[in-house]
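2024-03-11 09:14:02 INFO worker-7 job=invfold-0412 stage=load source=structure_tokens
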């Protein structure tokens, strides 16, 4: 394997099978929340299996800037000495990089602080609308100035005394839910947040884990202002969204056999398994621990998949996995319809448009819809040159599709992969045809990737 530092190109050759055993890096969503919750808590927390991806490191650096003392025991183990809810002003604007999670969650924390803050990000993050958090935080009394009518970053936050509100989320959004509940910690009275459908519940679990359980009534979650979080050790399970790439690859490739260990199996995150089982996938799930977050083992055996419909309430449970599910659809027999997924238009990129364009480049017939796409599976796939559009999930999804194509494929602008899955390329080598790779032949899974030249905060 060689490395090109200038163009961040990932070259993937076809593979005959996916096999082996692998353990995923720490869950991205939980790592963000863990460092924020532990940083706000009273006392010390040891966070194990933290994801040292660029996105999560932005949240870590921000909490340090606001006064939390964080010791790096090693690259994935943190000792966090919390500030007991009493943050200090940062000396300079906070760089959220490409991380919408960092920006949205930190906005909730900062809205009620007695000082001014500025949050900014890269070009991609600066194109993502923040009005959905600005409006309810303003209702609580916050003063937040974004750019233009959609509230683009940078965000200028002047902390104000907040009051609790009752807010019905217009869509199921774990980031918006968490933003408002964190703001509620610093508000007078009770803050109530109600979702139309259940989104991932890592935040609810972490409130309970840090000894501050939320009051739950149906889909309404309530937090009382002044509630104190208390430090507690936390093991971050393996990231299910990262595992999803290998689950789809193994499930769709006949003759494959894959075992994933200590992967997060939170039922509000594992909708992809239900979709793949409906498509004919052969997957065995074993939960080994169900403490703060359930985790366990997945065993996947490859076979021919069939098309399905993905939509309705299950979308909230598979929103991050829809790019790789589009790949599963391309590899399945028959038609797959993805609907009710307009939220994909405002992710790191327009993921509907990006995946539709890249699928066509590989030879997949696809019809783009305002809220999803219609994919005709089973077409012969040719190696292609596609771009990531600066989106880590687009890049990795296309790398998986390339394993099934005839001839090599090139994916450009892949430095973004480091935001969520720094070891993706090494794992790709490990799980595919390593014999051919070691011989240097142009078969199997030969991978070339330039290192990211993006500055790390």
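2024-03-11 09:14:09 INFO worker-7 stage=emit residues=457
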């Amino acid at each position: 394997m060689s490395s090109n530092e200038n163009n961040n190109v990932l070259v993937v050759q076809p593979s005959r099978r996916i096999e082996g055993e692998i353990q995923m890096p720490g869950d991205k969503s939980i790592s963000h929340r863990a460092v924020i919750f532990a940083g706000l808590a009273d006392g010390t927390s040891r966070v194990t299996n933290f994801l040292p991806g660029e996105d999560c490191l932005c949240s870590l650096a921000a909490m340090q800037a606001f006064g939390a003392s964080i010791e790096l025991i090693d690259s994935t183990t943190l000792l966090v000495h919390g500030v007991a809810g009493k943050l200090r002003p940062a000396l300079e604007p906070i760089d959220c990089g490409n991380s919408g999670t960092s920006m949205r969650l930190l906005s909730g924390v900062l809205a009620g602080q007695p000082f001014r803050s500025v949050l900014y990000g890269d070009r991609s993050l600066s194109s993502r609308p923040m009005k959905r958090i600005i409006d309810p935080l303003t209702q609580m009394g916050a003063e937040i100035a974004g750019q233009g009518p959609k509230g683009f970053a940078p965000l200028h936050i002047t902390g104000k005394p907040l009051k609790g509100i009752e807010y019905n989320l217009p869509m199921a959004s774990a980031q918006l839910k968490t933003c408002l509940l964190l703001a509620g910690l610093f508000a007078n009275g009770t803050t109530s947040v109600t979702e139309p459908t259940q989104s991932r519940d890592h935040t609810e679990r972490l409130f309970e884990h840090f000894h501050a359980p939320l009051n739950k009534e149906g889909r309404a979650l309530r937090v009382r202002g002044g509630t104190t979080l208390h430090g507690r050790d936390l093991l971050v399970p393996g990231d299910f969204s990262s595992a999803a790439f290998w689950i789809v690859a193994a499930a769709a490739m006949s003759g494959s056999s894959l075992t994933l260990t200590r992967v997060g199996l939170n039922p509000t995150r594992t909708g992809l398994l239900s979709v793949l089982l409906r498509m004919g996938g052969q997957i065995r799930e074993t939960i080994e621990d169900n403490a703060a977050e359930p985790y366990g083992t997945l065993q996947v055996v490859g076979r021919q998949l069939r098309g399905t419909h993905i939509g309705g309430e299950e979308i909230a449970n598979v929103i991050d996995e829809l790019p790789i599910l589009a790949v599963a659809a391309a590899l399945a027999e028959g038609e797959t319809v993805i609907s009710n997924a307009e939220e994909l238009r405002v992710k790191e990129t327009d993921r509907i448009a990006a995946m539709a364009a890249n699928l066509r480049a590989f030879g997949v017939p696809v019809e783009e819809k305002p809220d999803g796409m219609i994919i005709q599976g089973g077409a012969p796939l040719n190696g292609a040159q596609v771009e990531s559009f600066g989106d880590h999930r687009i890049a990795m999804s296309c790398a998986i599709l390339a394993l099934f194509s005839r001839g090599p494929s090139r994916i450009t602008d892949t430095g973004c992969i480091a935001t969520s899955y720094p070891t993706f390329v090494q794992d790709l080598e490990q799980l595919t045809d390593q014999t051919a790779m070691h011989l240097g032949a142009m078969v199997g899974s030969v991978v070339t990737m330039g290192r990211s030249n993006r500055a790390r905060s």
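2024-03-11 09:14:09 INFO worker-7 stage=report msg="The chain has two domains: 10-26+237-448, 28-235."
2024-03-11 09:14:10 INFO worker-7 job finished
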